[in-house]
Write a structure and sequence with these properties.
The chain is of the alpha/beta class. Helix content is 44%, strand content 12%.
């Protein structure tokens, strides 16, 4: 069965994946990006290539979302952690996933004003381009495979209001008290009879190595391989802003006003306003 690690881009998904894969698949709990493959991105070409090679056509891909998940879940009694930025949706008559294949969802959310500054930096966007991405209900990512994203608000709504069982994790809460949020995640997973009896030492090692400077060091050493390519065909730095990503210092008032106006309902619900 699948446990989705879902989020809008630049919201802390890689951070949560790093924690989970280190706790479940490493020996001592220390963060190590070599374990990220245990929580792959979905959909990926490797999931759909048996069914179709047309990775940029929703009419074609949507037919195989559920069959590819059924194949992933077949013949094994284990949990499949899957990262996704995909909207939880239906395309025509085809749903992205269903209760038969999904055990639960961990949805990571981040203040959209800080998502904006991170998205702008990550994709080398102008203010207008980053704003268009976050507001466009028809926006898709096209990095190796087409991924339906939609707007920041609809993405949040789709996963938190439509999922059978969802745990909401706020990026800001992880920054404030990572240990508390890790135990929140483990308690959630434990409800599905997943073995989460990790030693205090393993959890301490995970927390100790779960910091931005360590992530940057590992990326510089070539241990992280999920960057996107810039216009110069070179990989862009993934872990760049960290604590420097403060919308109060980086966001102009016009953009701040637009984001707060467009996402007022969601931001109030999440206590961002």
């Amino acid at each position: 069965m699948i446990v989705w690690i879902a989020s809008y881009p630049k919201s802390g998904n890689t951070w949560v994946r790093s924690i989970l894969t280190s706790l479940f698949f490493s020996k001592d709990g220390s963060i190590d990006f070599e374990h990220l493959d245990a929580c792959p991105k979905y959909p990926g070409p490797e999931h759909l290539e048996e069914f179709t090679k047309d990775f940029y056509n929703y009419d074609e891909m949507a037919k195989y979302w559920v069959p590819s998940q059924e194949k992933l879940n077949s013949g094994q009694n284990k949990i499949n952690f899957l990262k996704t930025h995909h909207l939880l949706c239906a395309w025509k008559n085809y749903v992205f996933t269903n209760p038969k294949n999904t055990l639960g969802t961990i949805y990571i959310v981040r203040d959209p004003r800080n998502v904006f500054t991170s998205v702008k930096n990550h994709f080398s966007f102008t203010d207008e381009e980053a704003l268009n991405m976050m507001l466009d209900k028809n926006w898709s990512l096209t990095n190796g495979i087409k991924t339906m994203l939609s707007s920041w608000g609809l993405h949040y709504f789709s996963w938190t209001k439509n999922s059978k069982s969802v745990l909401l994790i706020k990026y800001e809460d992880m920054m404030n008290d990572l240990r508390k949020e890790i135990y929140k995640i483990l308690n959630y997973l434990g409800k599905f009879n997943i073995n989460v009896n990790f030693s205090e030492e393993k959890i301490n090692n995970c927390i100790k190595t779960s910091n931005f400077s360590n992530f940057q060091d590992m990326e510089k050493k070539g241990l992280f391989d999920e960057q996107i390519f810039g216009d110069d065909k070179k990989k862009k730095t993934f872990f760049k802003l960290g604590k420097k990503n403060d919308f109060r210092k980086l966001l102009n008032e016009k953009i701040k006003y637009r984001l707060e106006k467009e996402f007022k309902k969601e931001m109030k619900e999440l206590n961002y306003l």
